[in-house]
Amino acid sequence: MDEAAARPDWIEVKHVQRVKRAKGNTDLYFRKGDYREGPLSSPDGTQALKDEVDAILKRLEATSRAVAKPKTGTLAGALNDYNRSADFITLARSTQNGYQDYIDELTDDCGDVLLADITRSWIMELRDAWAVRGYRAANMRLQLLKNALAPIIADDTDNRIKGDPFRSVENVRRPHDTPEGHPIWEDFEVEAAISAAITRKHPGLARAIALGRYGGFRKGTIITVPMRARVVGYNEDGLPERRINWITEKRKVLADRREDERLTAVLDATPNRAYTLAYNADGMAWTSRALGHAFDRLMNSLARAGKVRADMDQDGELFCPLTIHGLKHSRGVELAQSNASDAGIMAQLDHATTRAAAIYRRQAQRRVMSDHAQDQVDNVRELRKARETARRNASET
Question: Has the keyword Repeat been applied to this entry (predicted)?
């Protein structure tokens, strides 16, 4: 600066923004990142200006430390502890990302609440406020809060939270008119989707659908399971068999399962073009977003052609309500219908608890009971037809 060159005692101060005014004077502002403060009162290039800026920097640093270290005994402190706990760190990355959004939201909304003020009625009021956003959003936030406070509730020597505030607090029920999130696929729909993908020269998409339906793989596994995971093993009789051996993307555990014959048929009928079992049109590994878009385009076109089930959106356009995750659900129901044990379902579908197995078992039972009821209706109709035929024959003779 010209002024700096004219003054040997000039001090260059960082984070100072100079704004020239119409009258010829210059105002000084503190600027760091998105934070702005001023105009500053000290003259430019002076020790006084440096002292003024240093005071602002110290104040910002103190504020940052206060935000970074929530007060002990508050909900923000408990959430911060959970954020660094082994329970949180060992979650799947996708679950961590989802939970982190809830942690940040809770810290902003309720971080100053004292642990001593967290009661059952407070939890219920919070749950009811969340319910406006939808039952799933409310239940996910409630589970996060329960996870974060569990160590404090379980500690008999820590009485900041009296009793268990979550006792008898039920999750928000799914509304009766809410459509099923991941409908079960019918066999003809799976076959139509795989056939259409191959016909349209998207063998990698056909493989993705087969991996979901016949392997029970979730989307994250479909896009990452490598070609080398498919190996030749040996059964109890010493005969060779196809197996898939890989590290699961969610729980990071070794999975080793025999390949379903229907999956084998699709994989053998399509070329290997990438280092992953499923691949995009360019022969590269799928990204989650790209697979979702390709899947939706295929299924919506099949729905408009009447080859799979269809629904109608608000604009009157037909679309397919089937999802990639629904393929995994379909595999789970199939396992339950085959009387697979809970442990078997968990091993096949990479679940850590029996909760999902119970859901698949209930869905399978509803289908079996429904089919049984229809069989009874069919039997009664056949019996009535037989009686009517016998009556007609008797009257003719």
Answer: no
Kind of pairing between the strands at 318-319 and 26-32: unpaired
- Cα angle 231-235-241, degrees, rounded to a multiple of 5: 35
**Strand ranges across the sheet with 254-258:** 230-234, 240-247, 254-258
What is the per-residue pLDDT across 297-316, written as a single tens digit (0 to 9) for each?
A: 999 999 999 999 999 988 88
Instruction: Single out the residue of 166, 153, 165 nearest to residue 78, CA to CA.
Output: 153
Inter-axis angle of helices 324-337 and 355-396, to 10 degrees?
70
Helix locations, the chain, DSSP H? 2-6, 47-68, 75-83, 86-89, 93-110, 120-131, 135-154, 187-199, 203-215, 219-222, 261-269, 288-304, 324-337, 342-349, 355-396
What torsion do the CA atoms of 183, 189, 190, 194 make, to the nearest 10 degrees?
-130
pLDDT digits (tens, 9 = 90+) for 266-280: 999 999 999 999 999
Within the chain, which residue ranges are assigned CATH 1.10.150? 75-154
| DSSP H or E stretch at residue 18 | strand 16-20
**Is 28 within 8 Å of 38 (Cβ atoms)?**
yes
CATH of domain 75-154: 1.10.150
